[in-house]
Design goal:
The chain is mostly beta strands and 727 residues long. Among the domains are: 196 residues, no CATH class; 166 residues, no CATH class. Helix content is 3%, strand content 58%. The protein is built from two helices and 42 strands. The strands form two sheets. The protein has a 26-stranded antiparallel barrel. Strands 1, 2, 3, 4, 5, 6, 7, 8, 9, 10, 11, 12 and 13 form a 13-stranded antiparallel sheet that branches. Strand 40 and strand 41 form a beta hairpin.
Length: 727
């Protein structure tokens, strides 16, 4: 009778026996530690055969084997395992082997498993009649069904599967090779490939085909884009994507990326031969560079080139109609900001000239802050340069009729110095003083309306008073804050070409600013008072409300602002803004500029709702016509966008843009997505209604399918919810 040991503990006798028969031979060959054994019963037969039965656990070199029965024959040096068994090897990036029975080598690295299944990274399942394991890194599977979908009882087929006569998985190269592969969707064969190579779920980047994209447009027809990814080395890659579309276009897209110790850069582009412009080679080239320079400086560079005005819209690349190419450098510290930018803008906007507009520009700014203890407060020195150049050399105003010579160039150097200090006195009154001066040196060419050299200075003095009132009740908290600001600058100031302050806005952000102009070519002048009051209520039930009312009063009307800016005259329009935020997901915001006759010159309304199922946004914008700001007619538009989760895995998006002034739609788009643990399907439908001399109205349809389980980019982190089996 063979001796028996009944224990759930790690028995010294069984550990010693298994160590002698498994660990010591392996130790001699590989210089490794012995194995550990845990079982309900361990039997040592007369022939030195070790048999472990009942909840068997074998741990060897971080490998963990679970089975119902394991026997070891020292003559053949093999383990005979009865399942259900489970083998986990961390060296294979979390691959789990499950089988009915197996015969493995003593180090668990080689052998055959039958009725087996391999689970890669808890995502891709490979079910096979037989799995052969070689050297602990190669799995060879026979008669395989592969899928990352949840397989439910009573459902004969998963959403998708790959059936293959033979599959080889190499954990070193991280590749899965299918031979005689057949792709099926819900059991229906769709595609047969004699050989298919895919990355396993642990792959971050590997050369190979990416998911195809299908796109159909009214201008280009129906086409498919098949990207191929080249992993050149650990720090660079190249993607080539041929795009073929029903005989109307032949396009090759390319993207090259490279990461370096000091930064990275990326080049994207395409070349096309299509029926939109027969006989013409069309395309674009974009480049982006980011670099870390010494002394904490950051450098970025952009390149934007396109063959014609409509190419980017025709191929759905971007809606941008002004393309900037240039270089930026900056450094930001606690008391310092340095920024410089130089480049050229190329406009593809209808009716805009690249020769008579200041497309070439350079700007630079150095801001330094000092906090002298002797006088308190802070001193700010702001040095700036700004240049604008036109390609034209004409001294006359051309066909664009913008009252500016087509060849006017301007260069400005400015220095602004200011001293600010905060004070507190009386019953909680907060005060602030601001004293300073701005100096400009400007050079002008090709414009007889201005002197070639302009020197000017503008001092300023300002005082601001805030008196916040706070009250609380059992149901709500209130804050009421009146603000008064008095600003003085001289009335007289030498005018100069205005290139950076043409578009002015009046809102809560600049109600109490020293100037409402966005740049320094124009500076706000005269004695003025900026007055306003804000009110806030925070309710105990979770909703809140905020309102702001303000206005600017001037001693004189100096004619600095346009009639549609709401800042003209001795009194500006009333600025009224309000926000409501409800605890149930609703929010409402409105900003309006209203004159004394209750006529609205500008209004912006935003309504939003969001919860776990819906996200809705509605925006309305009204702007009064202002030819000096490029609006020859009133502007009125309505925008809607949102997202809806219909059911588990199903979601949709929508977007529409309607021009109320023209009484026509500009754009509409719908999107539908289905996503679960194993597949993501995206459908899109869009319509661009606007057209011009270079761009036609277009309808587009797109579809893309991504299968989870191949490559880390398709992992289930995007789709955390798995389908729920109904039974």
């Amino acid at each position: 009778m063979a001796p028996r040991f009944n224990s759930r503990l790690l028995l010294s006798v069984s550990a010693l026996a298994f160590g002698l028969m498994v660990g010591i031979p392996a130790l001699r060959a590989q210089d490794t530690a012995p194995a550990s054994l845990l079982a309900d019963r361990v039997i040592l037969t007369g022939a030195d055969t070790l048999v472990a039965e009942g909840n068997v656990e074998v741990i060897y070199q971080d490998q963990r084997l679970s089975a119902s029965r394991v026997s070891f024959d020292p003559k053949t040096e093999k383990l005979t395992i009865e399942g259900p068994l489970r083998l986990v090897d961390p060296a294979t990036d979390g691959t789990v082997l499950v089988a009915d029975q197996a015969e493995l080598s003593q180090d668990l690295q080689n052998g055959i498993l039958t009725g087996a299944r391999a689970v890669l990274s808890r995502e891709l399942q490979l079910a096979a009649a037989r799995i052969e394991r070689r050297e602990g890194k190669i799995l060879e599977l026979s008669n395989v069904t592969a899928s990352s979908c949840e397989v439910c009882v009573g459902e004969p087929h998963p959403l998708w599967e790959i059936r293959s006569r033979k599959v080889t998985h190499n954990t070193e190269t991280k590749q899965i090779i299918f031979e005689s592969a057949q792709f099926r969707a819900m059991g229906v064969p769709l595609l047969y490939l004699p050989r298919l190579r895919m990355p396993d779920p642990t792959v971050e980047r590997m050369s190979g085909f990416l998911q195809p994209e299908f796109r159909s447009t009214s201008n280009l027809g129906t086409g498919v884009k098949i990207p191929y990814f080249f992993a050149i080395d650990p720090s660079s890659d190249l993607t080539l994507a041929p795009y073929l579309s029903s005989g109307r276009t032949t396009t090759l897209e390319a993207r090259y990326r490279r990461a370096l110790n000091w930064g990275s850069y990326e080049l994207t582009g395409a070349l096309s031969d299509d029926s939109i412009r027969p006989g013409a080679t069309r395309g674009y080239l974009f480049g982006d560079l980011s670099a870390d320079l010494p002394a904490d400086f950051k450098l970025t560079a952009d390149l934007r080139l396109v063959s014609d005005d409509s190419y980017l819209l025709d191929y759905g690349i971007t809606d941008d109609d002004r393309l900037w190419s240039g270089v930026e450098i900056e450094r930001i510290r606690r008391d310092q900001m340095i920024h410089a930018r130089i480049g050229n803008t190329h406009s593809i906007r209808e009716g805009e000239s690249n020769s008579s507009q200041p497309m070439q520009a350079v700007t630079g700014e150095w801001v330094q802050i000092y906090r002298p203890a002797s006088i308190g407060g802070e001193i700010t020195l702001d040095w700036t340069i700004a240049g604008a150049r036109r390609a034209s050399t004409s001294w006359a105003d051309g066909a664009d009729d913008d009252l500016v010579p087509d060849g006017r160039d301007r260069m400005r150097a400015s220095m602004d110095a200011s001293w600010r200090r905060n004070w507190q006195f009386g019953p909680g009154i907060l005060a602030r003083t601001d004293l300073g001066v701005g100096v400009d040196a400007i050079s002008v060419s090709s414009d007889p309306a201005y002197d070639p050299t302009i020197l000017r200075a503008l001092p300023h003095a300002a005082a601001e008073f805030r008196w916040p009132w706070v009250a609380a009740t059992p149901t709500a908290s209130y804050v009421l804050e009146p603000v008064a600001q008095l600003v003085w600058t001289p009335d007289n100031f030498t005018t100069a070409p205005n290139e950076d302050s043409l578009l002015t806005e009046f809102d809560e952000g600049n109600l109490f600013s020293l100037t409402r102009f966005p740049g320094l070519d124009a500076r706000e002048r005269g004695l003025r008072a900026n007055l306003g009051v804000s009110w806030t209520r925070i309710d105990a039930n979770g909703w809140s409300a905020t309102a702001t009312l303000g206005r600017v009063f001037r001693q004189k009307d100096l004619g600095q602002f346009t009639s549609a800016s709401s800042l003209q005259g001795m009194r500006s329009d009333w600025l009224l803004s309000a926000q409501l935020s409800f605890g149930n997901g609703y929010s409402l915001a409105n900003r309006a500029l209203i004159d004394d006759g209750f006529s609205i010159s500008s209004d912006e309304l935003h309504l939003a709702y969001a919860n776990t199922k819906y996200e809705l946004n509605a925006r309305y914008l009204w702007l009064e016509a202002d030819p000096l700001q490029g609006r020859n007619t009133d502007f009125s538009t309505l925008l809607f966008d949102g997202a809806v989760n219909f059911a588990e895995g199903w979601s949709g998006t929508f977007e529409t843009h309607y021009d109320l002034q023209a009484e026509s739609a500009r754009k509409a788009a719908l999107g539908l997505q289905y996503a679960n643990e194993c597949v993501t399907v995206d459908l899109s439908l869009s319509r661009r209604f606007t057209s011009s001399s270079s761009v036609e109205a277009e309808t587009g349809f797109g579809i893309s399918v991504a299968l989870a389980g191949f490559g880390a980019g398709s992992d289930t982190a995007r789709n955390p919810k798995r389908r729920t089996c109904l039974r």
